Amino acid sequence: MKWLRMNDKLRELFSGRRLVIATKHHKEKVIQPLLESALHVQCFVPEDLDTDILGTFSGEVERVDDPLTTAKKKCQWAMDKYHCDLAISSEGSFGPHPHLFFGLADDELVVVLDRKNDFEFVARELSVSTNFNGSLISSEKELREFAESVLFPSHGLIIRSSKELNKDLIKGICDWKNLVSHFSNYKNKFGSAFLETDMRAMHNPTRMKVIEKAVVKLLQVIKSVCPSCNMPGFWIKDAKPGLPCSLCGLPTKSILSYTYCCKKCGYQKEEMFPLKKTTEEPTFCDYCNP
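RE: above sequence
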């Protein structure tokens, strides 16, 4: 694909513009340096944008929309409130990996909306790098074992009376003294406590790194130029399997081609062998290695 440089169309579209980062959880720490360096925009972070009203990981507020819709709502809300026509937001989801058995995943979506030029850019990073976990704790020994297993105190914790209840909930516990004190109070009152990882970005460095990778992907999307209309965002619409096995020649599930599509003019182009290999190892062939 053809990439834009800052001395052509990309500079014309983005350089010098204000961009609002729709977050209350300090995601600007990884988002702002990347966007300002790559697009020469002027990022700012609202002080009173409560994105938690669209849903919280801890369950007090249910997320009623899918992640992409929620991320777009954050952008739209921030642009409306702060009179800006360019915004970025991210939305994360945590749970079982969609393809790996017994694995947990952090699924991060990052969205840029540009009202001035009617652009929408989206990128996704699906990662097994996550400390997402929770456990019912009955003793201080269990408390310490669980906390250490989820990278506490560099990563924050949440404590509540039970997994199902959202009352009596304390977030953002980031030191041993407070953790032990809160657990002692909960144990005396309820007999045990439910501990879980605090997945808000400012209390979860592992998640912050995944968000950073998603933003890098997003910039790749923005910098990809349509060969027909020269607009950014010429990106993968479809991945076609069928790369032939090097031993038997039968099609495998590995990627044979990508189809790129421009959302502006609709131009499409198929790129064969995008992963720079024309055959797949027999190990990944359902016939040779059933």
